[in-house]
Amino acid sequence: MALTTEQVAALTTAAVAALTTAQIRALGTADVQALTTAQIRALTTAQAQVLETADVAALTTAQARALETADFAALTTAQVQVVTTAQIQALGTASIVALTTAQAAVLTTAQAASLTTAQARALETADVAALATAAVAALSTADVVALTTAQVRALTTAQVAALATAQAQVLTTADLVAFTTAQAQALETADLAALTTAQIRAIETADLAAMGTDQVTALTTAQVAAITTAQVANLTTDQVVNLTTAQIQALTTAGIAALATAQAQVLTTDQVGVLSTAQARALETADLVVLATAAVANLSTADIAVLSTSQVAALITRQVAALTTDQVEALTSAQAR
Questions:
Q1: Helix, strand or coil for residue 169?
Q2: 212: how many CB neighbours lie within 10 A of its CB?
Q3: For the chain, how far is it from start to end, CA to CA, in angstroms?
Q4: Alpha carbon 301 to chain centroid distance?
Q5: How many Cβ atoms sit within 10 Å of the Cβ of residue 268?
Q6: What count of other Cβ atoms lies within 10 Å of the Cβ of residue 122?
Q7: Cα 222 from Cα 234, distance rounded (Å)
Q8: Residue 254: how many CB atoms within 10 A of its CB?
Q9: Own/partner pairs for 288-292, CB < 8 Å, 24+ apart?
């Protein structure tokens, strides 16, 4: 004969723990809701595992909080998926730590969005990596800020690609330093363009050099102006040749001076044509002499006029021969000697 709700509520904790899994499964939702927090705590992991999903969803926040961490870790993925957002928020961080990767993998977007910052920070790195991309995208910006660098580094490339722009914007500089090369390559162009200049400067040189040309060309002029000389010097020739003229103009004179000879060699006529006088003067002589003749011919007369005598003297024969009449006329007497 089935127990009434009143009888269930009157059971001692020892009696509750002694119930068979069949008896637990036979309990109605009202019976489960009638259990005290002490009775909930008395449930064994085997008993917790056989609670109907409707019963799990019906637990009060106090009952959800009363579940032992071992019992919560024993819940099936089907049970985990029906846990309400209110129940999620009622859980202690110990329960979040106890999540298995299989459980983390089935967390819904609503459940992920409801995590408190303390709970987000409590997720084990393996569980972070197991989250669905939609669940990662649903994390609040406060939760993203709360993640440790180890957790951020644990994100898969698919999860990094799924980050919303607002989430990318709150990554700390330490997070970006912790990024792997593969993670950096996975950043969406829109997310990359939304990063602050401090965040851009924090990207390791190897990570920036590994990015696709579409990512590098997505950088704003403010971001390009902020990149370090080490970052500039490590850009690949493919990245350099694909820089927009606006990005070239945004490079600091220190950035221009940091260009390696191989990078200078691939500068296009359009890129050289937009160099400011300060940038032209900042070109190392070793970089100047490797410019294509067409690129040299595209230097503005103002740029020609500010070149140092050592820069002009370093020009090789084919470059001198490529100078236009206007460029020759722009040479100062000191340069022409």
A1: helix
A2: 14
A3: 113
A4: 44
A5: 17
A6: 21
A7: 19
A8: 11
A9: 288/264, 288/314, 288/315, 289/314, 289/315, 289/316, 289/319, 290/261, 290/264, 290/265, 291/264, 291/265, 291/267, 291/319, 292/265, 292/267
CB atoms within 10 A of CB 312: 20
pLDDT for 116-159, tens place per residue? 999 999 999 999 999 999 999 999 999 999 999 999 999 999 99
Predicted model pTM: 0.91
Gyration radius (Cα) of the chain, Å: 32
Q: What is the DSSP letter of 321?
A: H
Cα 194 to Cα 300: distance, rounded to the nearest angstrom = 33
Instruction: For 185-202, write each residue's pLDDT tens digit.
Output: 999 999 999 999 999 999
H helix runs in 139-204, sequence order: 141-146, 149-154, 157-162, 165-169, 173-178, 181-186, 189-193, 197-202
pLDDT in tens, 225-260: 999 999 999 999 999 999 999 999 999 999 999 999
Cβ atoms < 10 Å from Cβ of 70: 12
- Alpha-carbon distance of 38 to 51, in angstroms, equals 17
Conformational region of residue 311, where left means phi above 0, alpha means psi within -120 to 50, and beta covers everything else: alpha
Q: Which residue reads 């590994």 in tokens?
A: 210
